[in-house]
Amino acid sequence: MATVIAKNYVHGEWRDAAQQFESVNPANRNDIIGTAPRSTAADVDDAVSSAKHAYESWRELSWVKRAEYVDTFAQLLRRDIEEVSALVTRECGKAINEGRADAVEALHMAQYVAGLGRMPNGFTISSEVASKDAFILRKPKGVIACITPWNFPSAIPLWVILPAILAGNTVVFKPAEQTPIVAHKLQELFHEAGFPAGVVNLLHGFGEEVGDPLVKHKDVAAILFTGSRAVGKYIQQVAAGDAFKFAATEMGGKNATIVLADADLDLAINACLLGAFKTSGQRCVSTSRIIIDRALEPEFSRRYAEKVAKIKIGDGMREETFMGPLIEPGSIEKWQFHNAKAVEEGAEVLVQGEVLTDGDYANGNFVSPFVYRFDGYKKNTFCLREEAFSPHVAIIPVSGMEEAVDVYNDTDYGLAMAVITEDYRKWRWVRDHAEFGLGYVNLPSIGAEVHLPFGGVKASGNGHPGAEGILDSVTHRIAFTVNHAREIVLAQGLSTTI
Ligand code: NAD
Q: How far apart are CA 440 and CA 448, in angstroms?
């Protein structure tokens, strides 16, 4: 396949940088998908200045007019959906049905945002004084930095970029360094859709070299970050240094599926297969803990381990593949570290994951799932609290719903929780006592839809979810009051008598 030479995109022009870096297929490290510019702080200055300039006229358009640009983009994305799906799989390794799901989710976001342009973006509200009209309105913030991870390389950028520009902001997009070619393709579509120069700017490169100066830039009003807890926390701290700067940070998880004593076991097993091993466990919402009632655990563990051993691992481009490679060799080391830690902490290994290096696996970052049983739950156990972001799954037997939720809550994270039960009273209690931002009943812990907010609580997110939720992060909600009388009458009974 042809190698793509990705470029930066600033003020409506494709631009290079002095140095490039390669995008490598994680299923075959000999397959160089393309190269991308290794941007620097000087490129950040140019891109922010382009966005700042474009903001002056972009904000003057109506929401409907801006939504029409997004609608054109949506139509182009629909035309190229198969190309985007294949690029997602080739660049980040996930199975092609997931590559397609990523691209379809990106398309859904574009369709949703195009429709939002004709929906109310503020409302009138009664004033205490009859002669006044009060309004609550949304105003754009200015230049917005969108910094995104590699694991949903088409969907997550659109969750944040499209609502930002719909609301009248302009954007500097910094995609993950592992997936620049998908980002380049999205930018080609923005270009073809005819957005005015400077509305969406793209800078490729590494976190410290381009992400950091972007976050710190004085003309960046808001940062929409999705990625690891460490980087998100750092970005929150940087933003806190400037009173005007806002950061929405969506971060990692140590998600769980809770299987209660009355659960449908077949459904529980399927939910835990999908939740744990799609994207090879590299979803922020991946199930890495199965917290299960003791009554069901022996049969569940036996049948689950049998199924896990049959998972088809391979190049995501093959339709039969269920689980692709890890994103990079460093992820294999991280997975090995978490596995070793589990054994050291007392795990009973049920499925001994291995690094796969023979035959078709020789040039990829392939591992098989690691599944263990952890009986005798202890608080503060590293392997049960920290994100492994890989096919690393603990089965934790517990006695009853209340212990299940106690165990669930014993992590700093609070992203996704699924509960498998037939009892409506039980799922309601779990919903109200488990700490999460995304909850599911009789489903896996994965399965976002763009018209719902996507975010976590505790260390998983700082309260500003993506997708449906992001409009609140990219706009100031202003109060605006108009007096229709000749005299001034204020609320709370203040008068103008001197
Ligand atoms: P990462 O934090 O390493 O990188 C994310 C982005 O931040 C990349 O674009 C990277 O270049 C940039 N970055 C790195 N250092 C930076 C710095 N100092 N300043 C500014 N930008 C910087 O994360 P990743 O490995 O790409 O993604 C995996 C992580 O993302 C996991 O923890 C996963 O759970 C999380 N994630 C969260 C969500 C969510 O919505 N909550 C969704 C997907 C992934």
A: 10
